[in-house]
Amino acid sequence: MLRVDVLTLFPEFIEQCSATGVVGRARERGLLSLHCWNPRDYSQGNYRRVDERPFGGGPGMVMLIEPLRACLAAVREAAEPAPVIYLSPQGERLTQRIVRELAQAPRLILLCGRYEGIDERLIATQVDREISIGDYVLSGGELAAAVVIDAVGRLQDGALHHADSAIQDSFEDGLLDCPHYTRPEVDGEDAVPEVLLSGDHRAIARWRRQQSLGRTWLRRPDLLARASLSDADRALLADFQRQWLGRHRIAGK
Ligand code: 9WO
Q: Which of 68, 93, 129, 209 is at a distance of 20 to 30 A from 220, taking alpha carbons?
């Protein structure tokens, strides 16, 4: 059971992103609870300002400290202590390892910025961890928060139909996923790999492992370099490489 509180100027966006699919079902089953808080509800005065022009000049606006501090105080009071995570391109890069770590916490507080960002003093005093989902700029932190909620939500116990489907996923063992096939057995020229129709479960497991290793070698050699491979894995990969190089008639590599 995980509780996620999100500070956002667009609570309906976060709600919609988490309403469907595996994560929506996790919420319905009580495995994940999501609460959105709007800093605008904690702003002062009639204009409900949440942003101001930046000191030093330049384009755009900066989110004010005070509405965020007041909103955060209310969020903190609502349940047990929790780390405050700010989604920004300046953060540490999100990986499945970090997703697993976050998924085990009882509670997370996600802070979404808008405009050109948040006054640095609020980040310095209130934020425990800054996380980036990749090296690109969005128009706000909400899409990144939705990514975090989806990734941690599906790991809650009971969220997935099959107990072991999370373990089989890409990245759970540092390798890419194997290819998947379903009906029909033949689509035009293209048949399903024979081994998958053989009923030989050990041969199927071996083939899938080999495909994972081979694809990781072809597409993400950086991941392969960090994966810990057994002797059996090395043999499967060597066999894949021999076949692939044969098919592609390349001498080197
Ligand atoms: C906007 C902008 C406009 C003109 C000049 C410089 C600028 N910088 C930014 C900017 O970085 N805006 C951010 C928008 C402020 C924090 C929230 N926003 C955000 C978060 N964009 N992208 C993310 C994000 C979060 C996590 N992982 C990847 C991207």
A: 129
Nearest protein Cα to ligand 1, atom 15: 117
pLDDT computed for residue 249 by the predictor = 84
Q: Residue 101: which residues within 8 A CB-CB, separation 6 or more? A: none
Q: How far is CA 76 from CA 66, 80, 86, in A?
A: 15, 7, 15
State pLDDT tens for residues 15-41.
Answer: 999 999 999 999 999 999 999 999 999
Which atom belonging to ligand 1 lies closest to the Cα atom of 114?
17
CA distance 252 to 197: 34
Q: Does the annotation count 202 as an active-site position? A: no
Whether 158 maps to a domain, the answer reads no
E strand or H helix at 63, and its extent? strand 62-63
**Same domain assignment for residues 202 and 247:** yes
Q: Among 231, 232, 214, which residue's Cα sits nearest to residue 223?
A: 214
Measured from the CA of 131, which atom of ligand 1 is nearest?
A: 26
| Strand 186-187 to 190-191 pairing | antiparallel
Identify whether residues 34 and 140 lie together within a single domain. Answer: yes
Q: Are residues 95 and 18 in the same domain?
A: yes
Which residue CA neighbors atom 25 of ligand 1 most closely? 88
Task: Give residue 83 CA to ligand 1 midpoint distance, Å.
Answer: 21
Nearest Cα residue to atom 7 of ligand 1 = 116
Asked if residue 163 has pLDDT above 90, the reply is: no
Q: Identify the pLDDT of residue 69.
A: 98
Report d(CA 253, CA 243) in Å as an integer.
Answer: 13
Whether residue 120 is found in the same domain as residue 17: yes
Distance separating alpha carbons of residues 234 and 239, to the nearest angstrom: 9
Among candidate residues 241, 192, 188, the one with its CA nearest the CA of residue 213 = 241
